[in-house]
Amino acid sequence: MTICNANNKKTMPSNFLKYFIKNKIIALTLSSFLTSHVVATTMAEMPQWQLTQLPNKTSLRGSAVIGDSLWVSGSNNSVFVSQDAGKTWQDKSVKHGVKTDFRDIALFDKNTAIVMGVGSAEQSMLYKTTNGGESWQLLYQNQDKTGFFDSIAFWNEQHGLLLGDPIDGFYVVKITKDGGKTWRRIAKNKLPKMLDKEAAFAASGNTLIVGKLSAVNKQGKAWLTTGGFSASVYHSNDFGENWQRSDAPIYNETQTAGGYGLALNIKEQAFVLGGDYLQRPKKYANLATYHSGLWHKVNAGENGLRTAMNCQESICLMTGKTGNDISFNHGKTWTAFSSAKQGDSDNGFYTIAGDNMLFLAAGANGAIGILSFRPKPKKKFKDVFSRLKKNIQ
Questions:
Q1: Using CA atoms, how far apart are residues 200 and 206, in angstroms rounded to an integer?
Q2: C-alpha distance from residue 59 to each of 72, 91, 363, 365 (Å)
Q3: Which of 49, 174, 259, 361 allows an S-S link to 352, with CB 3.0 to 4.6 Å?
């Protein structure tokens, strides 16, 4: 609403102008507060790691997160679950069957998960729970004496892939369409011939990953990585039926060097990370990303072996036993980010997962780290708004 003064010029009523100025200041001040809060979160005032140590000093290699449901798995049939974002943990280990090392988890909802055991012959197996780990059923077990499972990944609860060590000169890549009850091995002629001394590493449950399916993106994208005097990434665009191999520019000078893990940022841009577990702290190229049809080295500080990476929005975390690195721009640039007291040489983890701006990391001796970028309760923003308005009045 406007009125005219004696000179026929438009003006606003004084009470309306006062109201507008007050609320404009509030809006600008609140906007400034929110902007500074985001900058502080990403640069100066980082959230702190919430560290927990599980009993029995279990070696943890598998991790998964959906909402507030956090799962980790590892040696001696160990599975631990938190349903409150890591505040408390319950032992949901598999109490029967062959002793194995659960190095990967596929989590479908807070109650439904598949864990993958590694080892020779029958030690490689899959167990499934549908009640949050209260009970487990043997889903699938390796029957080949030379077989060894490395990783699993699922597009949805029914459709997934399994990677195993080579048999007959080719990697074992199997596909399921019934939730893991039955598996079909991809024909050997659908995979490139292995390189000399090539090997896959079951380090963190990230040796094999799949892309997200959507109404727009219906391609069944999948990636797997290998090492052994090489660093390779195999890629499929048809739900694992056919594969192509590419070289990745990360450290590959020894039998234990090469690709250890894979990750995607929210743009579905692929990353491969690795190094050499016998030379964990050594300076070498440990990260590469795919764009423009090629793999390109990423300067992530060359801080040693990195075995797992996860991205939430623009924030990416990369970890290995000796340390962690963080990126705030989808993995373009990185800085070291410790999770332990200064002077501790092993301040990283083996595996990492995330969902809804919360990262879950797990590693040696039952170590668990949680790093949350989730927003604070809304009532705090209401309090800020009320204080601002009160100060202006």
A1: 11
A2: 10, 14, 6, 5
A3: 361
State which CATH number among 1.10.1040.10, 3.30.2400.10, 2.130.10.10, 3.40.50.300 fits the domain covering 52-372.
Answer: 2.130.10.10
Contact 338, 17 (CB under 8 A): no
Report which of 273, 272, 276, 230 is spatially closest to residue 256, judged by C-alpha positions.
Answer: 276
The pLDDT mean for the chain works out to 87
* Amino acid letter, 64: A
Q: Residues 281, 345: contact at Cβ < 8 Å?
A: yes
Query: 3-state class of 113 per DSSP?
Result: strand
Domain parsing of the chain, residue ranges: 13-47+379-393, 52-372
Q: If we measure between CA atoms, which residue out of 318, 231, 214, 191 comes closest to residue 268?
A: 214
Question: Which carries the bigger pLDDT value, residue 37 or residue 322?
Answer: 322
* Contact assessment for residue 288 and residue 251, using Cβ atoms and an 8 Å cutoff: no
Burial class (CB in 10 A: 0-12, 13-18, 19+), 281: middle
3-state secondary structure of 163: strand
Running DSSP on this structure, what letter comes out for residue 342?
A: T
> How far is it between the farthest Cα atoms of the chain?
99
Q: What is the pLDDT of residues 74-113, one digit of tens each?
A: 999 999 999 999 999 999 999 988 999 999 999 999 999 9
